[in-house]
Amino acid sequence: MTEIANPKPILLVAACALVDADNRVLLSQRPEGKALAGLWEFPGGKVEQGETPEEALVRELREEIGVETKVECLAPLTFASHTYETFHLLMPLFICRRYQGIPVAQEGQALKWVKPLKMRDYPMPPADEPLIPFLIDLL
Ligand SMILES: Nc1nc2c([nH]c(=O)n2[C@H]2C[C@H](O)[C@@H](COP(=O)(O)OP(=O)(O)OP(=O)(O)O)O2)c(=O)[nH]1
């Protein structure tokens, strides 16, 4: 029998580059007490059983930042694939320019609109770093 080289489970997380009229992207700071606390990430979260990644994102944007959008307003941009200690993260990154409402942190996290060229000033999880050039190219 073949050995399974990497037994870590794959975790599917959907994330969103929410873009404003000035081509800035919303970053959210992970709260104290959570894994990767203090790092700046794209809004999003785990895809639950029975959800598509797009449906999960519509839900997460509402729950985390009080913003309403639709599945049709999410376009695929790129993805992250990164091995953490206990799981392998697979994270599609969508881009969204059409949404309603002004983002307000619903879970006490700090939010910040950031130009892609300035993202290096905001420490991000290691999975996210390879995504920055895609945003710089696009925006
Ligand atoms: N939302 C989001 N998660 C990211 C990014 N980069 C990155 O490595 N992650 C990781 C952090 C977490 O391990 C996982 C997202 O899970 P989550 O935010 O739903 O869950 P959590 O760790 O806050 O834990 P939980 O209490 O909600 O279960 O993906 C990112 O840019 N956005």
TrEMBL record:
CDD domains: NUDIX_MutT_NudA_like. Belongs to the Nudix hydrolase family. 8-oxo-dGTP binds at R30, E41, F42, P43, G44. One of its GO terms (biological process) is DNA repair. It catalyses: 8-oxo-dGTP + H2O = 8-oxo-dGMP + diphosphate + H(+); 8-oxo-GTP + H2O = 8-oxo-GMP + diphosphate + H(+). It is an enzyme of class 3 (hydrolase). Its cofactor is Mg(2+). Residues 9-137 form the Nudix hydrolase domain. The keyword DNA repair applies. This is 8-oxo-dGTP diphosphatase.
